[in-house]
Structure formats: structure tokens, C-alpha cells
């Protein structure tokens, strides 16, 4: 069965699954999108889906990681690397990160507790650990540079990455925090993190 498609066809089908998966997951959510919905869009048999992904959750997670990479690149290159890092610009960086997350149809699905639980239940632990390691690999060189320049406090870089990840995780708890208090609460956490990490 693995020889059903040649390498060029596999690459094309995978890119189409990512493209249509982004649209379907964004419109319908993870739970309501079926493998049949995905394969119909790409014109392959339902069983052929498993040549590319072990589950629809795995496809969703790959799209989610693409979205995260895009947001990281946009923020670092268009916000932090364009001007001197200060408490104000770092605060702005974190606020814009939260805004990007809030505006992403894919990431917004994670506001639903059951969607997050479904992902954690279905995805291999190694994939989740790899995602966490990707944040560290991406951010640590910038953190070390800012620390060497005396801009950022000399905390363990992995802890700083973990603080930023914790802010992102907190941002997904909008329902628990409550609509009224959500924005002022997040603004306060952003301010506290910026004040604590960036030197005067």
C-alpha cells in the first residue's frame, strides 16, 4: 500500500492535506472535522490518509506547529529585532504574541478544553516534547544575546522560555478567567514578566 503513490505525488498530497486541513479545522474545529472530510478535499481514499498521518490530531498538530513558527518569525523579525529591546518593547512583543494567538483560527480551537484534551490524549508524547524543544532551540540564542548585552536578566534561558510558554498556556484559559477580566489579567501578567526579565 505504501507504494501506491510516488514521492512527488506524496509530497503534493501532503501539502494539500495541510492546506485543506488548515481550512477545515479553522472552520469546523478538530472534533467536527472527519478524516473523510479531509480526504474528499484531496481526492484520495479514506484509508490512504494513514500513509501520511497516524490520526487527524497529528495533521492538526503539524498545522498548529506551522502557525507557531510563522508567529515566532513575524514577532521576532518585525518587532523585537527592529528596535532596541526595552521593558516597553518586550511588553509590546508579548502583547502582540497574544494577539496573534487570539486571531489564529487554528490556535483559537485550543480555547476549547475538550480539543486540548483530545490532542494530549491522541498525540505521541515525543511529538509534544519535540514541540517544547523547538521553542527552546528557537528562543535561547536571542535570550543569550540579550543577556550578554546586559538587556535581559541572568536567569536560566530555559526558565525564561518556560515563562513565555506559561503565558501562552494561560492565554488559552479565557473561559476560566472570564471574558471581563481576561484582557486586564493578561496585560498585568505581560507587564510583570517584562518588568522582571528586562533590565532598566
Q: What would your notes on this structure say?
A:
The chain has helices at 7-28, 35-42, 56-78, 87-103, 105-108, 113-122, 125-148, 157-171, 174-177, 179-197. With 200 residues, it is mainly alpha-helical. α7 (125-148) crosses α8 (157-171). The mean pLDDT is 88.
Q: What attributes does this structure have?
A:
200 residues; mainly alpha; 73% helix; 0% strand
Proportion of residues in extended strands: under 5%
Mean residue pLDDT:
88
Largest sheet: none
Write down how many β-strands occur, each being a DSSP E stretch of 2 or more residues.
Answer: 0
Q: How many H/I helices?
A: 10
Measured between the Cα atoms of the first and last residue, the distance is 62 Å
Rg over CA atoms: 19 Å
* Low-confidence parts: none
Q: What is the approximate shape?
A: elongated
**SSE pattern, N- to C-terminal:** HHHHHHHHHH
| Structure classification | mainly alpha
Q: Layout of SSEs?
A:
Layout: H1 7-28, H2 35-42, H3 56-78, H4 87-103, H5 105-108, H6 113-122, H7 125-148, H8 157-171, H9 174-177, H10 179-197
Helix pairs in contact: 1-2, 1-3, 3-4, 4-10, 7-8, 8-10
Give a concise summary.
This protein has 200 residues and is an all-alpha fold. 73% of the residues lie in helices and 0% in strands.
